[in-house]
Structure to design on (323 residues):
């Protein structure tokens, strides 16, 4: 694999303890599976499995869980030299229960986990500039010092040489107020070139339930492309020149954890593979890219976990071919 990452993902990597039984609360779950997770880490793995050289930057605790997560990334092929082991703070843990339909409920452990201790000085800027896309996590906005580190970091990349990708991945139970969450996320949206979010998150940030109006409002805030996903209903994409819908896939859902991250991996892979500026992509080209991304997300939904569910490129090609 190329030693220079095409994409660098910055943010949290955590341990998901997923209930082994569907339809019960976390309190009533008889046992849990230990799985690696965290949206930017999921994305990094998804990209590597689709053939995109990818690096991960973030902090974990200098503990058994941090070692486990770092080892998992290395085994998969994610470049993990940017991981910092924090001796004062623990690795973030999440307990997850599943409804019968595969929807998730999260309860996060650790009030001061290592990932939100990320400092601007933790990031090697010259190396980061080699990436065509830099993806940042909303979890970095939760608390200082990561909040200021993220804002300082993305302000360094407004020349467009490296594109900023952002997925709000809203978990309101981690925020003190909804208004603060919205304020800070919209601040990042203004610096973002590639914005992916689901229908509910778009409505939260814009106050607009109409998906087309919501996308137009978000695009006006700064991004070059906005893609809003609707699960099996596919997605809506919008740039300054074109917009449209890409149909989703109907599958037997096992676990929806990581579906959005899988979708984003497919989207970024397609944008990179096109070798065109976002503004130059036609409606047909974006439709095909988003259709492929929908397939990646659909496959993830048929498997338990997030990182463990992300498919290889050959699996995605076979899935599309069979449909």
């Amino acid at each position: 694999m190329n030693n220079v990452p095409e994409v660098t993902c910055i943010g949290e990597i955590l341990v998901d303890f997923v209930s082994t039984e569907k339809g019960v609360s976390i309190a009533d779950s008889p046992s849990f599976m230990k799985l690696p997770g965290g949206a930017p880490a999921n994305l990094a793995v998804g990209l590597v499995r689709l053939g995109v050289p990818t690096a991960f930057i973030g902090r974990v605790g200098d503990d058994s869980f941090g070692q486990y997560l770092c080892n998992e990334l290395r085994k998969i092929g994610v470049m993990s030299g940017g991981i910092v082991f924090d001796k004062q703070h623990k690795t973030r843990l999440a307990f997850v229960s599943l409804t019968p339909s595969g929807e998730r409920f999260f309860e996060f452990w650790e009030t001061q986990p290592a990932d939100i201790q990320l400092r601007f000085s933790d990031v090697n800027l010259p190396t980061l500039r080699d990436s065509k896309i830099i993806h940042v996590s909303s979890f970095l906005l939760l608390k200082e010092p990561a909040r200021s580190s993220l804002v300082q970091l993305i302000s360094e990349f407004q020349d467009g040489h490296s594109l900023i990708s952002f997925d709000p991945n809203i978990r309101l139970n981690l925020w003190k107020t909804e208004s603060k969450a919205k304020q800070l996320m919209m601040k990042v949206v203004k610096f973002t070139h590639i914005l992916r979010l689901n229908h509910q998150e778009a409505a939260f940030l814009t106050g607009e339930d109409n998906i087309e109006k919501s996308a137009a409002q978000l695009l006006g805030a700064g991004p070059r492309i906005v893609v809003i996903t609707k699960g099996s209903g596919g997605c809506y994409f919008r740039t300054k020149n074109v917009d449209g819908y890409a149909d989703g896939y109907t599958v037997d859902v096992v676990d929806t954890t990581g579906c959005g991250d899988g979708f984003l991996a497919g989207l970024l892979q397609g944008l990179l593979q096109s070798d065109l500026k976002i503004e130059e992509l036609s409606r047909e080209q974006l439709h095909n890219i988003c259709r492929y991304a929908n397939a990646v997300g659909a496959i993830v939904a048929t498997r338990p976990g997030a990182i463990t569910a992300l498919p290889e490129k050959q699996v995605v090609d076979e899935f599309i071919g069979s449909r």
About this structure: The chain has ten helices and 13 strands. The CA atoms of residues 41 and 306 lie 10 Å apart.
